[in-house]
Amino acid sequence: MRIYILIQFACLIMPFKLLAESTVSAELPPYHSYITYSHNSYLATPERWQNLNLTQQLNKGIRILEFDVWDNSGRVAHDEKGEPQHCESITTCLQNVVNWSDAHPQHMPVIVLFELTHLNGNNTDIPPNMVIQKKIEQIVKAVAPLVSEEKLVSYGESSKALNNHRGKLLVAVYRKFNTQLNHVNYEGASARQTLSISEGLDLLANSTYIEKLIDSHIFLAPRWLGENKHGIVDYDFLGERAIQSYLKVKNNQPYLQLVKHDQLGYQSAYLQESDIVISNLPSLSTPFNKNRAMSKGGVTGLGLSNTDALSLYLGFKDTDSN
User: What is the pTM of this model?
Assistant: First the structure.
């Protein structure tokens, strides 16, 4: 059973306690659970999570949180507009999650996503690959105490049953924008281009950062698998494959894989039953049948934009307009 995590710009899926902690057998591996997701979890704007800080989001049942790493200092931000936030840095955002986790030691694992760009805020003086390396180093530094405390899900144990992950966090990184890589150009391509994490860390040429990611229990989530519709290969797919190959040589252990694709019902020949696919749910403005939507996409949860959308969804759940 593949798990699809469906989001919009800020989303709230049905409470994790209702879908996972009370209905899913603890003997199932992580990819057989229902997981909730909030995009830009740290933003305290009216359009995002003004009325729900990180603790409240977790109390509501959200089990995936996402933070944008803005610059090389480890600052978490969406841009330079100075919008209100629930936390300001990798360290403080993580600490918020850890504090909640310590107070709820029997919780199902919380996935913490860090979104990276090759930009150092608005400073263009540093080469893009160095920016990615510095941001990864900031994450490595922040999670180091959690690795020592065995607070993070490791690669080796990531495919084990849920009981093995109670009270733990799973940390993953992915690059911003799924539309185009920094070195790709085609008609109609997005002007917003980004360097892949794998290129920035040189994962295909040497194992230095592969070992660092594994030792720090930091998972890499490609934006798509294989080629996209333009025939472009995401280098983070290749980097993730390099990590797989390294692990197979070292201990031949399987591990949980994440794919940060945005398309609902994304399909790929490279998808495995154990993969976690994080996808967008189109705007909810008309009635739909939840069961049909789930059967069409193999969906285990539906992501909504805010609490108003959640109320709308609950009002539509017994209707069918498909």
Answer: 0.85
